[in-house]
Amino acid sequence: MRGLLLINPRAGREEPTVDDLETAARARGVDVHILQEGEDPAELARAAETEILGAAGGDGSVASVAAVAVERDLPFVVVPYGTRNHFARDLGLDRNDPRAALDAFDGNERRVDIGRAGNRRFLNNVSFGAYAALVHRREHHRPRREALAGLRALWISLQGRAEAWARLNGEPVRGRVLLVANNAYELSLFSIGERTRLDEGRLHLYTANGLLPDAWEERSGERFELDAPGGRLVSALDGEPVVLETPLELGIEPRALRVLVPRAPRR
Q1: How far apart are the C-alpha atoms of 6 and 78, rounded to whole Å?
Q2: Residues in contact with 38: Cβ distance below 8 Å, sequence separation at least 6, in sequence order
Q3: pLDDT digits (tens, 9 = 90+) for 51-90
Q4: Which residues, including other chains, have CB under 8 Å from residue 183's CB and lie 6 or more apart?
Q5: Which of 127, 206, 205, 210 is nearest to 162 (CA)?
Q6: The pTM is what?
Q7: How far apart are alpha carbons 182 and 205 in whole angstroms?
Q8: Strand pairing of 3-7 and 31-34?
Protein backbone atom coordinates (compact mmCIF):
# COMPACT_ATOMS: atom_id res chain seq x y z
CA MET A 1 0.00 0.00 0.00
CA ARG A 2 1.08 3.57 -0.62
CA GLY A 3 2.44 5.28 2.48
CA LEU A 4 3.65 8.70 3.59
CA LEU A 5 6.26 9.39 6.27
CA LEU A 6 6.40 12.83 7.87
CA ILE A 7 9.84 13.42 9.43
CA ASN A 8 10.42 15.99 12.15
CA PRO A 9 14.11 16.89 11.73
CA ARG A 10 14.11 18.87 15.00
CA ALA A 11 12.98 15.98 17.19
CA GLY A 12 16.39 15.62 18.81
CA ARG A 13 17.88 12.59 17.05
CA GLU A 14 21.25 12.72 15.28
CA GLU A 15 21.58 9.14 14.03
CA PRO A 16 20.52 8.12 11.53
CA THR A 17 20.59 11.46 9.77
CA VAL A 18 17.43 12.81 8.22
CA ASP A 19 18.86 12.08 4.77
CA ASP A 20 19.64 8.48 5.74
CA LEU A 21 16.14 7.96 7.14
CA GLU A 22 14.58 9.48 4.03
CA THR A 23 16.68 7.22 1.79
CA ALA A 24 15.70 4.13 3.78
CA ALA A 25 12.01 5.03 3.60
CA ARG A 26 12.04 5.72 -0.13
CA ALA A 27 13.85 2.41 -0.71
CA ARG A 28 10.74 0.76 0.77
CA GLY A 29 8.46 2.67 -1.61
CA VAL A 30 7.33 5.17 1.02
CA ASP A 31 6.78 8.85 0.17
CA VAL A 32 8.60 11.25 2.49
CA HIS A 33 7.98 14.83 3.59
CA ILE A 34 10.54 16.54 5.85
CA LEU A 35 8.79 19.09 8.03
CA GLN A 36 9.91 22.66 7.54
CA GLU A 37 9.86 25.35 10.21
CA GLY A 38 6.25 26.41 10.83
CA GLU A 39 4.60 23.46 9.08
CA ASP A 40 1.83 21.68 10.97
CA PRO A 41 2.19 17.88 10.70
CA ALA A 42 -1.50 17.37 11.46
CA GLU A 43 -2.57 19.64 8.60
CA LEU A 44 -0.22 17.87 6.22
CA ALA A 45 -1.54 14.49 7.36
CA ARG A 46 -5.14 15.57 6.79
CA ALA A 47 -4.41 16.74 3.25
CA ALA A 48 -2.22 13.81 2.21
CA GLU A 49 -3.39 11.41 -0.47
CA THR A 50 -2.11 8.20 1.04
CA GLU A 51 -3.23 4.84 2.39
CA ILE A 52 -0.85 4.81 5.38
CA LEU A 53 0.24 7.70 7.59
CA GLY A 54 3.63 7.56 9.29
CA ALA A 55 5.50 9.91 11.60
CA ALA A 56 9.17 10.02 12.55
CA GLY A 57 9.82 12.18 15.59
CA GLY A 58 9.29 12.41 19.30
CA ASP A 59 6.08 11.59 21.13
CA GLY A 60 4.54 15.01 20.53
CA SER A 61 4.86 15.10 16.75
CA VAL A 62 4.01 11.39 16.48
CA ALA A 63 0.83 11.93 18.51
CA SER A 64 -0.41 14.75 16.29
CA VAL A 65 -0.21 12.53 13.19
CA ALA A 66 -1.69 9.54 15.02
CA ALA A 67 -4.71 11.68 15.91
CA VAL A 68 -5.30 12.35 12.20
CA ALA A 69 -4.92 8.64 11.44
CA VAL A 70 -7.81 8.03 13.84
CA GLU A 71 -9.88 10.77 12.19
CA ARG A 72 -9.28 9.30 8.74
CA ASP A 73 -9.36 5.64 9.87
CA LEU A 74 -5.95 5.03 8.27
CA PRO A 75 -3.20 2.66 9.41
CA PHE A 76 -0.43 4.44 11.29
CA VAL A 77 3.34 3.84 11.48
CA VAL A 78 5.50 5.26 14.27
CA VAL A 79 9.23 5.70 13.70
CA PRO A 80 11.12 6.55 16.93
CA TYR A 81 13.19 9.60 16.07
CA GLY A 82 13.01 11.70 19.25
CA THR A 83 14.68 11.61 22.64
CA ARG A 84 12.23 9.46 24.63
CA ASN A 85 9.78 7.71 22.29
CA HIS A 86 7.58 6.25 25.04
CA PHE A 87 4.86 5.14 22.64
CA ALA A 88 7.30 3.30 20.37
CA ARG A 89 8.83 1.60 23.41
CA ASP A 90 5.45 0.43 24.67
CA LEU A 91 4.64 -0.94 21.21
CA GLY A 92 7.75 -3.10 21.51
CA LEU A 93 9.82 -1.24 18.91
CA ASP A 94 13.58 -0.81 19.22
CA ARG A 95 13.94 2.88 20.01
CA ASN A 96 17.58 2.76 18.91
CA ASP A 97 16.78 1.55 15.40
CA PRO A 98 14.47 3.94 13.52
CA ARG A 99 15.25 2.25 10.19
CA ALA A 100 13.87 -1.09 11.44
CA ALA A 101 10.59 0.60 12.34
CA LEU A 102 10.12 1.47 8.65
CA ASP A 103 9.36 -2.21 8.03
CA ALA A 104 5.98 -1.55 9.61
CA PHE A 105 4.79 0.02 6.35
CA ASP A 106 4.52 -3.60 5.21
CA GLY A 107 3.71 -4.92 8.68
CA ASN A 108 0.89 -6.24 10.81
CA GLU A 109 -1.95 -4.18 12.20
CA ARG A 110 -2.66 -3.79 15.92
CA ARG A 111 -5.61 -1.96 17.40
CA VAL A 112 -4.64 0.22 20.38
CA ASP A 113 -6.39 2.78 22.54
CA ILE A 114 -6.02 6.53 22.28
CA GLY A 115 -6.81 9.07 24.98
CA ARG A 116 -8.78 12.27 24.61
CA ALA A 117 -8.53 15.56 26.52
CA GLY A 118 -11.42 17.69 25.34
CA ASN A 119 -11.11 17.71 21.56
CA ARG A 120 -7.41 16.73 21.59
CA ARG A 121 -6.14 13.17 21.42
CA PHE A 122 -3.06 11.79 23.17
CA LEU A 123 -1.05 8.58 22.88
CA ASN A 124 0.68 8.48 26.26
CA ASN A 125 -0.59 10.89 28.88
CA VAL A 126 -1.70 14.38 29.78
CA SER A 127 -0.34 15.96 32.94
CA PHE A 128 -1.22 18.91 35.16
CA GLY A 129 0.43 20.63 38.10
CA ALA A 130 4.16 20.63 38.75
CA TYR A 131 5.27 18.46 35.83
CA ALA A 132 3.20 20.49 33.35
CA ALA A 133 4.73 23.68 34.76
CA LEU A 134 8.18 22.18 34.22
CA VAL A 135 7.40 21.38 30.59
CA HIS A 136 6.24 24.96 29.98
CA ARG A 137 9.36 26.25 31.71
CA ARG A 138 11.54 23.96 29.57
CA GLU A 139 9.92 25.30 26.40
CA HIS A 140 10.42 28.89 27.53
CA HIS A 141 14.15 28.33 28.14
CA ARG A 142 14.79 26.00 25.21
CA PRO A 143 16.62 28.63 23.09
CA ARG A 144 19.14 29.00 25.92
CA ARG A 145 19.43 25.24 26.45
CA GLU A 146 18.22 25.49 30.04
CA ALA A 147 15.62 22.77 29.73
CA LEU A 148 16.15 21.16 33.14
CA ALA A 149 18.18 23.83 34.91
CA GLY A 150 15.33 24.88 37.16
CA LEU A 151 14.02 21.42 38.04
CA ARG A 152 15.09 21.35 41.69
CA ALA A 153 14.07 24.96 42.26
CA LEU A 154 10.66 24.29 40.77
CA TRP A 155 9.92 21.38 43.13
CA ILE A 156 11.14 23.30 46.15
CA SER A 157 9.00 26.27 45.20
CA LEU A 158 5.96 24.00 45.35
CA GLN A 159 6.69 22.84 48.90
CA GLY A 160 4.05 25.02 50.50
CA ARG A 161 1.40 24.40 47.88
CA ALA A 162 -1.29 22.45 49.74
CA GLU A 163 -4.40 24.25 48.54
CA ALA A 164 -6.73 22.65 46.03
CA TRP A 165 -5.94 23.89 42.51
CA ALA A 166 -8.52 21.88 40.58
CA ARG A 167 -11.56 19.63 41.05
CA LEU A 168 -11.69 16.09 39.73
CA ASN A 169 -15.22 14.75 39.27
CA GLY A 170 -16.28 17.43 41.76
CA GLU A 171 -13.68 16.56 44.42
CA PRO A 172 -10.72 18.86 45.30
CA VAL A 173 -7.32 17.94 43.90
CA ARG A 174 -4.55 18.68 46.42
CA GLY A 175 -1.71 16.75 44.84
CA ARG A 176 1.14 18.61 43.21
CA VAL A 177 1.14 16.34 40.17
CA LEU A 178 -1.81 14.87 38.32
CA LEU A 179 -1.19 12.49 35.41
CA VAL A 180 -3.92 10.98 33.24
CA ALA A 181 -2.57 8.01 31.28
CA ASN A 182 -3.79 6.05 28.29
CA ASN A 183 -3.61 2.59 29.96
CA ALA A 184 -1.67 1.77 33.12
CA TYR A 185 1.92 2.88 33.77
CA GLU A 186 4.56 1.80 36.22
CA LEU A 187 5.56 5.03 37.96
CA SER A 188 8.54 5.88 40.17
CA LEU A 189 10.37 8.99 41.32
CA PHE A 190 10.59 11.39 38.31
CA SER A 191 10.14 8.42 35.99
CA ILE A 192 7.33 7.16 33.80
CA GLY A 193 7.75 3.45 33.32
CA GLU A 194 6.41 1.13 30.68
CA ARG A 195 2.87 0.06 29.89
CA THR A 196 2.27 -3.65 29.55
CA ARG A 197 -0.95 -3.07 27.60
CA LEU A 198 -2.18 -0.50 25.10
CA ASP A 199 -5.67 -1.95 24.62
CA GLU A 200 -7.12 -2.12 28.14
CA GLY A 201 -9.76 0.47 27.29
CA ARG A 202 -9.27 2.50 30.48
CA LEU A 203 -7.64 5.70 31.63
CA HIS A 204 -5.46 5.59 34.72
CA LEU A 205 -5.25 8.73 36.81
CA TYR A 206 -2.27 9.21 39.14
CA THR A 207 -1.90 11.87 41.82
CA ALA A 208 1.31 12.59 43.76
CA ASN A 209 0.71 14.32 47.08
CA GLY A 210 4.25 14.61 48.45
CA LEU A 211 6.92 17.19 47.69
CA LEU A 212 8.63 14.58 45.49
CA PRO A 213 6.41 12.14 43.55
CA ASP A 214 7.65 8.97 45.20
CA ALA A 215 4.16 7.81 46.15
CA TRP A 216 1.19 7.85 43.82
CA GLU A 217 -2.54 7.49 44.36
CA GLU A 218 -4.23 5.71 41.47
CA ARG A 219 -7.73 5.38 40.12
CA SER A 220 -9.00 4.20 36.76
CA GLY A 221 -12.04 4.72 34.59
CA GLU A 222 -13.27 5.46 31.10
CA ARG A 223 -14.01 9.12 31.80
CA PHE A 224 -12.97 11.90 34.19
CA GLU A 225 -13.94 15.55 34.41
CA LEU A 226 -11.45 18.17 35.56
CA ASP A 227 -12.35 21.74 36.49
CA ALA A 228 -10.27 24.66 37.69
CA PRO A 229 -10.70 28.29 38.73
CA GLY A 230 -10.26 30.65 35.81
CA GLY A 231 -11.32 28.08 33.24
CA ARG A 232 -7.80 27.17 32.09
CA LEU A 233 -5.15 24.64 33.10
CA VAL A 234 -1.46 24.64 32.23
CA SER A 235 -0.93 21.14 30.86
CA ALA A 236 1.50 18.87 29.05
CA LEU A 237 0.01 16.65 26.34
CA ASP A 238 2.39 13.84 25.34
CA GLY A 239 5.19 15.98 26.71
CA GLU A 240 4.22 19.09 24.73
CA PRO A 241 3.12 22.32 26.52
CA VAL A 242 -0.55 23.23 26.05
CA VAL A 243 -3.19 25.23 27.90
CA LEU A 244 -6.54 23.42 28.12
CA GLU A 245 -9.90 25.00 28.83
CA THR A 246 -12.02 23.70 31.69
CA PRO A 247 -14.30 22.04 32.52
CA LEU A 248 -12.29 19.39 30.68
CA GLU A 249 -13.59 15.94 29.84
CA LEU A 250 -10.94 13.23 29.72
CA GLY A 251 -11.91 10.02 27.95
CA ILE A 252 -10.59 7.03 26.08
CA GLU A 253 -11.32 5.68 22.61
CA PRO A 254 -10.80 1.92 22.86
CA ARG A 255 -8.83 0.32 19.99
CA ALA A 256 -9.37 3.41 17.84
CA LEU A 257 -5.84 3.60 16.42
CA ARG A 258 -4.82 1.15 13.67
CA VAL A 259 -1.10 0.99 14.33
CA LEU A 260 1.22 -1.06 12.10
CA VAL A 261 4.21 -2.91 13.53
CA PRO A 262 6.97 -4.84 11.72
CA ARG A 263 6.26 -8.48 11.02
CA ALA A 264 7.98 -10.98 13.29
CA PRO A 265 10.97 -12.58 11.58
CA ARG A 266 10.35 -16.01 10.12
CA ARG A 267 11.91 -18.90 12.02
Answers
A1: 10
A2: none
A3: 999 999 999 999 999 999 999 999 999 999 998 899 999 9
A4: 113, 195, 197, 198, 199, 200, 202, 204
A5: 210
A6: 0.86
A7: 9
A8: parallel
